[in-house]
Amino acid sequence: MIKNYLKIAWRNLLKERQFTLLNLIGLSTGLACTLLIYLWVNDELHVDKYNEKDDRMYQIMANHKSEDGIKTIQHTAGPLATSLAAEFPEVENAVTVLPASWFSDKGTVTFNDTHLKAGGQFVGRDYFNVFSCPVIDGDAKSLFRDNQTVGISYALALKLFHTTDNIIGKTIKWEHGEFGGMYNIGLIFKENPANATEHFDLLFNFDLYVAKREGMKSWSNSDPNTYVILRQEADSEGFNTKIKAFLTTKDKGTDITLLAVKFSDKYLHGHFENGVQAGGRITYVRLFSIIALFILIIACINFMNLSTAKASGRMKEVGIKKAIGAKRGSLVAQYLGESVMMAFLALFVAIALVFLLLPQFNQVTGKNIILDFDIKMVASALVITLVTGLIAGSYPAFYLSGFNTISVLKGAFKTSVSELWLRKGLVVFQFTISVIFIVSVLVVYRQIKFIQAKNLGYSRDNIIHFEIPMSMDSASLKRSEAFVGQLKELPGVKNVSSYYHDLTGSHGAISDMQWPGKQPGKNVDFANLEVGYNFIETAGMQLKEGRSFSQNSNSQKEIVFNEAAIKSMGLKDPVGKTVKFWDQKRQIVGVVKDFNFESLYEKVKPCFFQTYPVMPNIMVKMQAGTETQTIARVKQTFADFHKGNVFEYQFLDENYNALYASEQRIGILSQYFAGLAILISCLGLFGLAAFTAQRRQKEIGIRKVVGATIQDVTMLLSVDFLKLVMIAMIIAFPLIGWAMNRWLQGFAYHAEIGINVFLISAVSICTLALVTVGYQAIKAAVMDPVKSLKSE
To answer: What is the DSSP string of 607-633?
Structure first.
């Protein structure tokens, strides 16, 4: 019986080649999209899940109160980990980590004549008890015996020594600001997996950082990250309650509260509102899961419409089978079998498409996903395909098997009104989703353009930045100042400065500043931007009042605030007044107009500049049109001053755009998926148009006999479908307008949706519908009326 069904199914597929091809395109495209999204979602769900104690691993976050509400940051006080481990029995292990990403640039590691850029992070003594970082060679404890021992990754060891044998105890040179020096290799570790958020090449003892930056001993600093492993029996909610006000026991004047969040959840749930986790990238995971579902449903709808469009050709087959005793159940099984067979044919095509598209997909998503046919993957693909086949074939199977035997054999079968409306309803659903995709793509595109064109309050055009090897001793400082002076003399260079952090979100923070007239208990979180001479001028910032820094020894006693800081402090006539922090007094010499030094998700925060003669990160403003020649001159000057070191530069606007890499990738993916959804929807419309033209064949013949033109017949058929598209737009526009408005509200600065977005969407979808329907309408209109009116 089953063999018979398969033979009949295969013959029907071969007999109706155009029908088979259209169904195959629709289903395989839908399945390919679903598989790609499945791979992406699966990868997202496994980010940072590599730690053995993942279920008990938490990161301590800090909630800072401000006039705009509570801001949650991941940077905490240096002594926090040690105190938590000592004072809370729930804590099994705790560690302080200053991650590689905290630094704006990588350092240079050298062995003999090999010079490589590498990222290093500073870790506390319990690092290997908290993070799963396998040691390949050496002893993890050796890293913490002194400050001159370093751990290097397996990959870095191969690059430096071309082997991992007998390199424990060898000495390498590390150049990274004041942390530069000669270090002995104490261990080789296996680098983090690709789906980890933090990647690094070297591990240093956190005590080294404390020795260079004694401010880390203070409870008022907020630079490193703190991670804890809770004991098996510990209650995370109870622990959160206990640590909330812990900082007040160490720093009486603070209003910062603590919050422990699951470490591996932070990647997907990294957005906080008023101190509470409120989503994040999980929104995109859910969004694309829904998109995959809708695309698959659209593909199934296509199959239904195309199958019912061809149903009249199989009416007599159904009638004869029923007449000789076939039960409806067996017919349903046969037709479901045909659709499942089609689905599995589509699966093979989809897998081929995924293989072809995966490199491009990885490039767009910034991932390294592979199509690994493990049990989970195979099982998921088979289940998805089987369900797709059953859903796609369900309506045609019950529709065909439900034909009345006598009516079919007499040729008197007529389509019911409910069946007609169901098919039209399915098309409306398809185009509602298509309209939603089109509007979404346009809004995301408009917001990305808004971000790229936004006046940030500083210039990011024609500016490169790079790191120089320097330490804080006088000889190194003089050499670095000479280097900056030499750069200023180069043709094509307009200005040069330096800085410690960057202008795209990485910066220090201070909350214990004192100023004249400060109200008791009032705290303001200031972003601390440490810069070199001429930074304000090089970045093209505008002064609202006062002046920039003087270029002499007095400059380190001066400070410049932004407008938001002066407003938060409530200072009148600020220039000339004195503020105090870190037991140092500084005089306000200027106020710059507000500028965006974080992403546009955030409002401009209070910040200040403090200056030093030169910092490790160099910023060069170039004359427009001379970039290539100027960069070559800068590179040569770098080589003259820093022989053997690697020159790697980036454009400032690239760093800014990197803040919105996720949004740009989502925008590109949305375009692709929207295009595919529209393509599949048009196939469905094509199927319904064919069905309608076939059903109205005699009506069209009669109209032509009494004088209707081809244009009249084409318009007659097209208007009906345009009505369906109009209904789809009426449903879609309010829904997607509301959803995209909510998405835009996540940005502190955003574009407006505008009526033209909906007009462009309406024109686009109507044009596509007319082109799709037009083919079938014209085909029906030009048919010889004699053939149309001939009895079957």
So the answer is: EEEEE-S--SEEEEEE-TT-HHHHHHH
The 10s digit of each residue's pLDDT in 275-315 is: 888 878 888 888 888 888 888 888 877 777 666 656 555 55
Q: What H or E segment, with its residue span, contains residue 342?
A: helix 328-365
Nearest one of 538, 541, 548, 542 to 463, comparing CA atoms: 538
Angle (nearest 5°) at CA 397 between 392 and 403:
145
Q: What amino acid occupies position 277?
A: Q
Q: Kindly give, in sequence order, each residue whose CB lies less than 8 Å from that of residue 633, ignoring residues fewer than 6 positions away.
A: 490, 491, 492, 493
Instruction: State whether the Cα torsion 691-695-699-702 is positive or negative.
Output: positive
DSSP class of residue 527 equals E
Task: Name the average pLDDT for the chain.
Answer: 82
Helices 417-453 and 661-695, axial angle in degrees (round to 10): 150
Tell me the pTM. 0.75
The average pLDDT across 334-363 equals 84
Calpha distance 751→236 (Å, rounded): 41
Decide if 82 contacts 94 (C-beta within 8 A): yes
| Residue 391 in tokens | 């859903």
Between these two residues, 776 and 408, which has the higher pLDDT value? 776
Say what the pLDDT of residue 207 is: 93
CA distance 188 to 149: 12
Distances (CA, A) of 11 to 6, 388, 392: 9, 22, 19
Please tell me the predicted confidence (pLDDT) of residue 318: 58
Measured in Å, how far apart are the chain's first and last C-alpha atoms?
32
Whether 403 has a pLDDT exceeding 70, the answer reads no
Beta carbons of 467 and 642 less than 8 angstroms apart: no
**pLDDT of amino acid 15:** 62
What is d(CA 122, CA 374) in angstroms, rounded to the nearest whole number?
37
Q: State the Cα–Cα distance between residues 533 and 497, nearest whole angstrom.
A: 6
What 3-state DSSP class applies to 232?
coil
Per-residue three-class SS string for 380-442? HHHHHHHHHHHHHHHHHHHHHHCCCHHHHHHCCCCCCHHHHHHHHHHHHHHHHHHHHHHHHHH
Query: Of the segments 35-44, 306-315, 523-532, which one has the largest average pLDDT value?
Result: 35-44
Answer yes or no: are the C-beta atoms of 568 and 608 closer than 8 Å.
no
Q: Please calculate the CA angle 340-680-44 and round it to the nearest 5 degrees.
A: 80
Q: How far apart are CA 314 and CA 741, in angstroms?
A: 49
Look at the alpha carbons of 117, 122, 126, 131 in this order and tell me if their dihedral is positive or negative: negative
Q: Can you list the positions of beta strands (E) in 623-735?
A: 649-651
CA dihedral 690, 692, 695, 698 (to 10 degrees): -90
Note whether 53 and 130 are within 8 A (CB). Answer: yes
Three-state secondary structure call for residue 226? strand
Distance (Å, rounded) from C-alpha 536 to C-alpha 398?
Answer: 73
**Torsion sign across C-alpha atoms 608, 612, 617, 622:** positive
Is residue 489 scored above 70 in pLDDT? Answer: yes
Any idea which residue has 């996540």 for tokens? 746
The mean pLDDT value for 586-590 works out to: 92
Q: At how many degrees (to 10) do helices 2-15 and 17-45 cross?
A: 110
Distance CA 57, CA 76 (A): 17
Assess contact for 206 and 224: CB atoms under 8 A.
yes
